[in-house]
Design brief:
This protein is α/β, with parallel strands linked by helices. It has two domains: 206 residues, 3-Layer(aba) Sandwich (Rossmann fold); 261 residues, Ribokinase (UDP-N-acetylmuramoyl-L-alanine:D-glutamate ligase, 3-Layer(aba) Sandwich), CATH 3.40.1190.20. 38% of the residues lie in helices and 15% in strands. The strands form two sheets. Strands 8-17-16-15-14-13-12-9-10-11 form a ten-stranded mixed beta sheet, with helices on both faces. It has a seven-stranded parallel beta sheet with strand order 3-2-1-4-5-6-7, covered by helices on one side. Helix 10 links the parallel strand 10 and strand 11. Helix 1 crosses helix 8, helix 2 crosses helix 3 and helix 3 runs parallel beside helix 4. The longest helix has 19 residues. The mean pLDDT is 95. Belongs to the NnrD/CARKD family. Homotetramer.
Length: 490
């Protein structure tokens, strides 16, 4: 196991460049394959000590070479083993051919495998190198293995999974365990890849970290504090509430005030110095009945808002939760064009008929954060959402560049993207965060961080991470109110 490179996510193309650079530096590439194969064999023996037969599936490339080495080690250990190959193994080249030559079992054609009770499948067909849909015979095999409930250990990635996007290319194995080398791929974290990989282990096979880091683009990484802690404001003894930022959250009408309150309390608990709910006059009483630490200010229309904005201390806003869709939302956003804004829910949907109207307001230094779920994303960016050639990271980055905004593309694999091309994949959010009002809490947390001076992208990323941590603390069965209570400052 390794940890030195645990922060990196390398695309398959970047990992191929690492392999090439390692070979160019004088490292024997077959020795790397030998280490990979021995790690796989050790893992499968550890994970499945009661297996009656190990079924090794060998593909036509280096993933298959790793599998041949693993098969040799399993044979030497005395394990029962059957090997099946895809295509003509005599056409293998380089390290893969050498690995096959060292394996006593020459194997059978892939289509001949029929699952039996007690089998454990070792999937070495494609790994991360697949860029097209799996062939029909592989699709049929995946179906047989899945139907039989045979446990699968995947080498690098479950075959049929795109290592860059996490998408299924026609069909893919659902692995209990996946063994990969040096670093993870985006496809290990993006859905549905994350689920299909099962338990993921990363093994160091001896490529120097300097080579790996030199070839890593560093554009896509996991969303952890390492990605944004460098911009956190220093805590100072001599401070006051305005130095910690004033966050304003807009409320909906009298019968739709709860969402704004959850955003407001979340922003306050995330560290904003003070928080005000700006509410229509008719909603003041409904809000006042539930607030103590949160202030209230009446704002009914755009002129009233513009008058209030003469106070230049008002720099950060959340608009959308429970606000309502329509002209009023669009007017308020236009009044806030020079301020920092988290636009969520109804605020996003208010621009579905003319997204460019929104994007034109926020030029220059990014100060807008958009927090769309799948449907809202498609309303603002229909062409990007509909491009099946793009993965979720690609879509989020394209949207961030178009909108000149930090994008929080929500879901089980939330992606946070910046207009400069950076992207983070979030992994700490529990499944039970998928509940009504959870997004209102997230918007408030991001707003609270923006109010404290974090740049838009870092505020969005840190907010998503804090949201996940709060969900972990609140536990299964949480409500949005429970979640807001568990928000902690950075």
């Amino acid at each position: 196991m390794m940890s030195d490179l645990s922060d990196l996510l390398l695309t398959p193309a970047e990992m191929a460049a690492v392999d090439a650079a390692a070979a160019a530096s004088g490292i024997d590439s077959f020795s790397l394959m030998e280490r990979a194969g021995s790690a796989i064999a050790a893992a499968v023996l550890r994970l499945h000590p009661g297996a009656q037969r190990f079924v090794v599936l060998c593909g036509p490339g280096n993933n298959g070479g790793d599998a041949y080495v693993a098969a040799r080690h399993l044979q030497e250990s005395g394990a029962a083993l059957t090997l099946f190959h895809l295509g003509d193994p005599s056409r293998l080249k380089g390290d893969a051919a050498r690995a096959r030559a060292g394996c006593a079992s020459q194997g059978q054609e892939l289509g001949l495998y029929r699952p039996e009770p007690g089998d454990v499948v070792m999937d070495g067909l494609f790994g991360a190198g697949l860029g097209r849909e799996v062939p029909a015979e592989v699709r049929a095999l995946i179906g047989r293995v899945t139907d039989a409930g045979i446990p699968v250990l995947a080498i690098d990635l479950p075959s049929g999974l795109d290592g860059r996007t996490g998408k299924v290319l026609g069909a893919a194995f659902r692995a209990q365990n996946t063994i990969t080398f040096m670093t993870r791929k985006p496809g290990h974290l993006l859905m549905p890849g994350r689920e299909l990989c099962g338990h993921l282990e990363v093994f160091d096979i001896g490529i120097p970290a300097r080579i790996v880091r030199a070839e890593a683009g560093g554009v896509i990484v996991e969303n952890t504090p390492e990605a944004w802690k460098g911009v956190l404001p220093a805590e100072q003894l001599e401070t006051h509430k305005y130095k910690r930022g004033h966050l304003v959250v807009f409320s909906g009408e009298a019968d739709k005030t709860g969402a704004a309150r959850m955003s407001a309390i979340s922003g306050l608990k995330a560290g904003a110095g003070l928080v005000t709910i700006a509410a229509p006059g008719a909603a003041m009483v409904a809000n006042a009945a539930h607030l103590t630490a949160i202030m209230l200010h009446p704002v009914d229309d755009k002129p009233q808002l513009e008058g209030w904005l003469a106070d230049k201390r008002l720099q950060t806003f959340v608009l959308g939760p429970g606000f309502g869709i329509g002209d009023r939302a669009r007017g308020f956003v236009s009044a806030l064009a020079e301020r920092h804004l988290v636009l969520d829910a109804d605020g996003i949907s208010s621009f579905k008929d003319d997204p460019d109207q929104l994007f034109a307001l926020f030029k220059g230094e990014p100060r807008l954060v958009l927090t769309p779920h799948e449907g809202e994303f498609a309303r603002l960016f229909p062409d990007i959402a509909g491009d099946d050639a793009l993965g979720k990271v690609d879509k989020a980055v394209a949207a961030a560049r178009r909108a000149n905004a930090a994008i929080v593309y929500k879901g089980a694999d939330t992606v946070i993207a910046s207009p400069d091309g950076r992207a983070l994949i979030n992994t700490n959010a529990p499944a039970w965060l998928a509940t009504a009002g959870s997004g209102d809490v997230l918007a408030g947390i991001i707003g609270g961080l923006l109010a404290q001076g974090l740049p838009a992208f870092e505020a969005a990323a840190a907010g998503v991470w804090l949201h996940g941590e709060a969900g972990q603390r609140a536990g299964k069965g949480l409500t949005a109110e429970d979640l807001a209570v568990e928000v902690r400052p950075l």
